[in-house]
Write a structure and sequence with these properties.
It is a single chain. By secondary structure, the chain is an alpha+beta fold. The chain is 44% helix and 23% strand. A hairpin with a 2-residue loop joins strand 2 and strand 3. The protein folds into 2 domains: 64 residues, Orthogonal Bundle (Arc Repressor Mutant, subunit A); 98 residues, Beta Polymerase, domain 2.
């Protein structure tokens, strides 16, 4: 649920939900109560703590997850961050996250793989990746390639990436 990611059934403490939402725990408890009443989440008590997670069997789980994912998820966050960095011609999410995003079934991804085409400033990219990892709550793996290597499919890796699902973050004007 962190960073808009709903898939995977991660259980969170109400306290952590409140902190992520930047609200008071009492407000979070009230909203969690509404979600419980609607059947959208389930809870489990562990001592005095209350663990909450989405009810993946609810008929609205999939459509609501997709709305949250597309509105607040890694694609939106990474695109926003990379757009502010000069020297990037194109950028894509690839790998397991892109496969799940495009509808391929499988386990929830543990990380997000990003391919950047161009020559961005390395220090600026590293800072952006660190900030993104905190924001989306997942490790972000970065691969940077030159425009020439990208256009010439310079390696087997690049051919594999191009022949697999990719989610566009920044595309060169065509």
């Amino acid at each position: 649920m962190r960073g808009g990611e709903c898939y995977g059934g991660t259980a969170l403490l109400v306290f952590h939900l409140a902190r992520s939402a930047r609200t008071r725990p009492s407000n979070a408890h009230k909203e969690v109560g509404r979600l419980l009443d609607a059947g959208l989440v389930v809870d489990r008590r562990v001592g005095r703590s209350r663990l909450i997670h989405a009810d993946e069997n609810h008929e609205l789980f999939r459509p609501l997850s997709e709305i949250v994912l597309k509105t607040f998820g890694p694609r939106t966050a990474i695109s926003r961050k990379l757009t502010a960095i000069g020297g990037i011609d194109e950028a894509y999410i690839f790998g397991s996250w892109a496969r799940r995003y495009s509808g391929e079934p499988g386990p929830a991804p543990h990380d997000v793989d990003v391919l950047v085409v161009g020559a961005p400033e390395r220090r600026e990219m590293n800072r952006a990746i660190e900030e993104l990892q905190d924001e989306i709550g997942k490790e972000v793996g970065l691969v940077t390639v030159t425009a020439s290597d990208w256009s010439q499919h310079a390696s087997g890796f690049l051919r594999t990436v191009k022949n697999s699902p990719m989610v566009s973050l920044i595309e060169k004007d065509r």
